Amino acid sequence: MPQSDQDKLPKCINQSLEYLSTHPFSIIGLADREKFHTGLLAYTLQKLADCAPELFKELLEKLWNQEKFSPMDDVKVLVEQKSVDLIINDNLNTLFFAEIKLKTTLRKNQFESYQKELPQAEGVVLSLFSNGSIDKNCSSFPSVISSFFNERTSAQFLIGSSDEIILIRMWVNYLKHLWRTANWLEELKDKSVPERDEFVERLEKLKLKGIFEWVRYNAILNKLNVESCSKSPKFEKKPYIFNSHGNSGIDCQIQHKFPYGLQWQAGALKLFAIDPNFISNQESKARDKFLMTLKKNIVKNFRIVVIAL
């Protein structure tokens, strides 16, 4: 039986995936590196500040989602300063900072700690996605940059054959197709992905499978947060997305004598239970007995890994 158009990946997404797979950044294995994109963003901003101050100011306002910034005299864009991914100084005063998140989320209170350390600076989380799922201060840098350089005036900046301009142009084109793919996924929410297995395999080759997982985590998180507003089940704490060893996951914990719940990370769904009276890695017969009861009553035929925390 032939596939309908709904069962196939959209033509534009196929084209973007093909473009990404043959792009030099993908071939040399840098496309999924947050530090790589941080460096290129800093390089682009510094080049604009030096050569096109008005464009620099305009892009700054779009990335930081502000209406108007004052002109700056001596701009220096720096990376990896005081544990912050990117800062922008004017006459040695730090006026802006950004944390770049391509496939992961913020650590607990990470953004707040930067705000305390740099109280005079405007901060932003620059993410792949635009729905604020990472942080309320979130802005999508692939969307902003690709659309910014698509405008007639700023597009003129990318005309040229110097090494600097060629590099920035390559990056902008990469972000355009990355954003198109991510935005399509985000709009799908929890709907089924056409040709899912092939799609995920292609993302794996691009080392961008985390994009797919991140969207799915958010779709599930939204539903869990709706459930957490009802009387049952009673969540120990609001379901959230966590980051462990560079991999994101989703955690849902229910109130009980032994708080229990589910964790989903790297394709594995885990049932866990916690004994508040025991230190991690110690034995707890009562907790283990409760876990076995959960396994019997809840897991049944599902392939879920059972862990004790």
Structural class: alpha/beta
Order of helices and strands: HHHHEEEHEEHHHHHEEEEHE
Number-wise, the strands total 10
* Number of helical segments with 4 or more residues: 11
- State the separation between the terminal residues, measured CA to CA: 48 Å
Instruction: Flag low-confidence runs.
Output: 301-309
**Rg from C-alpha positions?**
22 Å
Helicity, in percent?
40-55%
- Strands of the widest sheet, in order across it, are 1-2-3-4-5
Describe the structure.
This protein has about 300 residues and is of the alpha/beta class. The strands form two sheets. Strands 1-2-3-4-5 form a five-stranded mixed β-sheet, with helices on both faces. It folds into two domains: about 5-190, no CATH class; about 230-309, no CATH class. About 45% of the residues lie in helices and about 20% in strands. About 30% of the residues are buried. The chain has helices at about 10-20, 25, 35-50, 55-65, 110-115, 140-150, 150-155, 165-190, 195-205, 210-225, 285-300; strands at about 75-80, 85-90, 95-100, 120-125, 140, 235-245, 245-255, 260-265, 270-275, 305-309. Helix 1 packs antiparallel against helix 8 and helix 6 packs across helix 8. The termini are far apart.
